[in-house]
Amino acid sequence: xxxxxxxxxxxxxxxxxxxxxxxxxxxxxxxxxxxxxxxxxxxxxxxxxxxxxxxxxxxxxxxxxxxxxxxxxxxxxxxxxxxxxxxxxxxxxxxxxxxxxxxxxxxxxxxxxxxxxxxxxxxxxxxxxxxxxxxxxxxxxxxxxxxxxxxxxxxxxxxxxxxxxxxxxxxxxxxxxxxxxxxxxxxxxxxxxxxxxxxxxxxxxxxxxxxxxxxxxxxxxxxxxxxxxxxxxxxxxxxxxxxxxxxxxxxxxxxxxxxxxxxxxxxxxxxxxxxxxxxxxxxxxxxxxxxxxxxxxxxxxxxxxxxxxxxxxxxxxxxxxxxxxxxxxxxxxxxxxxxxxxxxxxxxxxxxxxxxxxxxxxxxxxxxxxxxxxxxxxxxxxxxxxxxxxxxxxxxxxxxxxxxxxxxxxxxxxxxxxxxxxxxxxxxxxxxxxxxxxxxxxxxxx
Length: 446
Known about the structure:
Elements: E1 4-5, E2 7-10, H1 14-25, E3 30-33, E4 45-46, H2 49-55, E5 73-74, E6 80-81, H3 85-93, E7 101-103, E8 106-111, E9 116-119, H4 124-129, H5 135-150, H6 169-176, H7 180-190, H8 203-220, E10 225-228, H9 234-245, E11 249-251, E12 258-261, E13 267-272, E14 275-279, E15 282-284, E16 293-306, E17 319-323, E18 334-340, E19 351-358, H10 364-367, H11 369-372, E20 380-391, E21 400-402, H12 413-427, H13 433-445
Parallel strand pairs: 1-14, 2-3, 2-15, 3-11, 8-17, 15-21
Antiparallel strand pairs: 4-5, 6-10, 7-10, 8-9, 12-13, 13-14, 16-19, 16-20, 17-18, 18-19
Helix pairs in contact: 1-9, 1-12, 3-13
């Protein structure tokens, strides 16, 4: 390992693999190392099922679970927004050639009171037929949706009576006469905000998020979400292949991986097995950064194996369900992500429903009770609590660029923001989707 690299990437989680692929494509000399023998890190898919039972200390799975090798269980389940950033990264980088996706069949939101889940209404027709609202609220909501969908940011004539550059989202809700319940599912199940701070911020970000949801829905029909066959573990491997094609070097099962710095605190290389590879920058997950990260909270996740679809989802083979914080007197939303045998991640007739939320008490599993109560009979549960870490500094001086831990959300938008932020801090420029596509095409033509 006496070569010198532009950047060494430590960890094969999805964020690190995407960055490795993008940096290799942009001409950087990349060495990618991991202490594990497998790809995916925290975001791996576990197969066979016996390995999952072993990981959680639960012995062997019963025969009723079918063949162990039919299972690919995501440790951190998330859906892809059909028109979102990760799909754009996949398309522009050409990684889609290694993957096959299925559309998620249902997108639901929970409302207290009736203790029911409802399909997220996003079209004008659904606004009038939803059971989430009363008759007059439906009309007001339909009017609001029509306004959002008609907005062209560059054309003030489409903005109506609202100055979208100045108005807060709360002022927009008030303008249309929408009640708190409607604001709740709009902000959390459509715009996918994680808390209510957005209400006091400019409405433009929320408008863009609702439009992204609508545009994603328009691409594939039933919901805005996609999910890869054989699980999310396919994603890091796809970007790892991309990196390798463009000269990236991979070394798995490398112990220690100690980062070295010079007297000014700048990265100089990475040591493993008594050998040191030199580099001018390191990108890594928090597990490799030691004292360079701070703990900012925890996430609790519960992987549930079911023998039936989630009740009240019209027997959907896959769905996302969001429980907005205010509906269950919390500060954080609760998420449910359900996939099944239809996605080659479970044996025939079996479903995987994974519940997650940000920990707020000293009894994390109890915090998932509102979600678990909606699942019906559960064959087996696997509960885990993970610490959330963020880098202490941005890395522009030390050249150590650390990703943040995966949050409780069941979509990839926050993950992609972190990836693009690291890319910008390392390269000094915004990521250009079209430029990557052009670079790939140029190499393909040579």
